[in-house]
Amino acid sequence: MTAPYEITAVEHLGGYRLRLSFADGVVAEVDLADRVGSAVGPMLAPLSDVSYFARVAVDVDLGTVVWPNGADLAPDVLHDLALRCA
To answer: CB within 8 A of 74, min separation 6: which ones?
Structure first.
């Protein structure tokens, strides 16, 4: 069963902005600059490079966005952020 906050599609919009589509039909643009633009820690540090951030993809098994180094963000947190931005 799919949780309503699972991410089904992602599009990089430039900078740290993403258009996220969720299983419950919510589609919203979110700006993650404050979360990853000055990221601290080995997993999120590469995301501070916009060209690396742009390599975002959806992991259908996790139901969230991921990057090539294995970094991911909690889909429920992104859903809450999307609802505030929509």
So the answer is: 64
